[in-house]
Automatic annotation (TrEMBL):
<feature type="domain" description="Periplasmic binding protein">
    <location>
        <begin position="89"/>
        <end position="330"/>
    </location>
</feature>
<comment type="similarity">
    <text>Belongs to the bacterial solute-binding protein 2 family.</text>
</comment>
<protein>
    <submittedName>
        <fullName>ABC transporter substrate-binding protein</fullName>
    </submittedName>
</protein>
<dbReference type="InterPro" id="IPR025997">
    <property type="entry name" value="SBP_2_dom"/>
</dbReference>
<feature type="signal peptide">
    <location>
        <begin position="1"/>
        <end position="29"/>
    </location>
</feature>
<keyword id="KW-0732">Signal</keyword>
<feature type="region of interest" description="Disordered">
    <location>
        <begin position="32"/>
        <end position="59"/>
    </location>
</feature>
<dbReference type="InterPro" id="IPR028082">
    <property type="entry name" value="Peripla_BP_I"/>
</dbReference>
<dbReference type="Pfam" id="PF13407">
    <property type="entry name" value="Peripla_BP_4"/>
</dbReference>
Amino acid sequence: MQRTTHRPRLLTRPGVVALAAAVALTAGACAKSEDDASKDTQSPAAAGAEQKVVTPKPGSKTCAIDAYGAEKLDLKNATVGFSQSEKEANPFRIAETRSIRDEAKKRGVKLLTANAQSQFSKQISDVQDLLAKGADLLVIAPLNSDGWDPVLQAAAAKKVPIVTIDRKINATACKDYVSFIASDFVEQGRRAADQMIEATGGKGEVAILLGSAGNNVTTERTKGFKERIAEKAPELKVVFEQTGDFAREKGQQVTEQLIQSKPGIKGIYAENDEMGLGAVAALKGAGKKAGDVKIVTVDGTRNAVQGIVDGWISGVIESNPRFGPLAFQTLETFTKGEEVPQDVIIQDSAYAADNAKSEISKAY
Ligand code: GZL
């Protein structure tokens, strides 16, 4: 399995090139628990890791401060509020928050943070609270795509610009939020399908452990996977789909039901690593051997990449959580009065048997 590496196109507008060229993401140090990571130094591989330049989504429109209706300010003297959506039991969330904290610290920017513990109503009140505490700018990792109007109105009333990362909110770019920075989740689904086709030979019955409902990540990872299967391996049939809520325990429970109802299942596409690791636990509990059922997951956490090394997982598509550098570069460029892209895609790598052992230090 060859790793596919995208070579993204750069937009040619001055402000945007400055952003795209100036911001290079490196594979971060693996994220341990929050407190461990605070003592963590970058792993050698991460320190010298391949620079991943992130770029505006091809054809992306731009946003400037006058059009948005905010005031120029010096980021160094500003307070940034960060709203995290899910509890930091998932390494994706630990790495994501770590990236935001590290970048704020590196830039000497005051950061207020809040974690909604996977409860949307709490995320709405968290953001209201950040505004009340005087956040001049907001970075939001949304739990859900809808239900943001109260917050958007409150932020607009205070002329507090919002940058959204990770999941999309259904609102208007350059009016409700400045910029949306994320992976291409449909492409992640396609790449997962490629790995599943390779692992299964393109024939047999497969199951999907769906992510949580109400966000674009689940819909787009599912869309990409199914499109690719239909296009490249019509004899690979999706016979089971059920949400594991992006959680390991539920992924295990659902897989236990799956192997009871579909004993001949050949592959499992887990829409995040935590559910994929839950599936591994269920298969082990049922007395299966590594490789009996082909598992492909999305995120790029260290535990899942170790699962490839151990033979339980066939492939992992990275969903890069290291939004810090790009989120703050976007805020800096925007508040200086320069244009920023409304849509920015972060490049994701991938792991399979040919690179899991050698590249596991880049996992988070
Ligand atoms: C993807 C992110 C997803 C991760 C899951 O950007 O929103 O949410 O893939 C997490 O691990 O629950």
